[in-house]
Amino acid sequence: MSKKQKSILSKEALTFLRNYLNNPSPTGFEKEGQRMWLEYLKPYIDEHYVDAYGSAVGIINPKAPFKVVIEAHADEISWFVNYISPEGLIYVIRNGGSDQQIAPSKRVNIHTEKGIVKAVFGWPAIHTRLRSTEGKDPQPKVENIFLDCGARNRKEVEDLGIHVGCVVTFEDGFEELNYDYFICRALDNRIGGFMIAEVARMLKEKKQSLPFGLYIVNAVQEEVGLRGAEMIAKRIKPDVAIITDVTHDTTTPMINKNIEGEIRCGNGPSITYGPAVHNILRDLIIKTAKKNEIPHQLHAVSRSTGTDTDAFAYSNDGTPSALISIPLRYMHTTVEMIKRDDVENTIHLIYQTLLNITPKTNFKYL
């Protein structure tokens, strides 16, 4: 954390974070997670609404003409049931950027109208794999990974309520690791939803009055093309948008810093340079970080950010937008890892940046 900033994560906030992360929120099926997020947010906002596809918006000062968005995305990667074999094995396709390499031996929840059905991603034992393929160990692919729910024919699978189109999520939940690390599936990017909710809480508890309307947005369907952000940006028509997401900790093995840059967990939020990022807004964020002694890092992207920043930036004839990312290890696995200090410093940076924005702030390019 910054030298001046004490811990801002209350016991209540951490309880919400644990429950929020443990609740599944797969792309296209974010409903329960959005309901949980809104219930936590409601004491700190004036109004809220949910759009047709599930993006949730909390508003402070809803009648103000100047509109500022702080945004995260609510969805997590998952799988769809795609085919049920005569032997009762279940084959899947991706819902978002799911990684087939990590699937074998993972426990999963299959979501049906009857409730959760437990299953596992089965995988042949190493003994039989090597003998059956003359020593050429097969690699997990989307077309060869499969779920085993205990059924031994198609009818037994269907009797459990499983059908083509059922969504499948990994079971792994929230844990606290050594040296103040949090691990969980789906920190990408429900940690963002948590952080913007905490910004709203801080504004309320510190009785800060903002000279603009603040729209706290938890958008759906980022993992399949920024779709929720595209829709909600057109509806809100913000004057400014600050997006928060995760970014790679590039100090882990098998990442080339010459290509990815150097970002490290524990060194503070990452502020992005790139075509979609508005220079004036980004510089305001950097100046805010320096003024408040908030640790931060810099990151560059050559084309798109790959986040909801792009959707907001290129909406409504152009919206000044910036990206603040939290470093994360092992993205799109079930053991995504972040540092508690980075969470608190990201919340603090967004909060302080909002205090430096007014309707008179000049975001004109020339």
From TrEMBL:
This is M42 family metallopeptidase. SUPFAM superfamilies: Aminopeptidase/glucanase lid domain, Zn-dependent exopeptidases. Belongs to the peptidase M42 family. The keyword Hydrolase applies. The keyword Hydrolase applies. It comes from Chitinophaga rhizophila. InterPro entries: Peptidase_M42 (IPR008007), Peptidase_M42_aminopept (IPR051464), Peptidase_M42_dom2 (IPR023367). PANTHER family: AMINOPEPTIDASE (PTHR32481), AMINOPEPTIDASE YPDE-RELATED (PTHR32481:SF0).
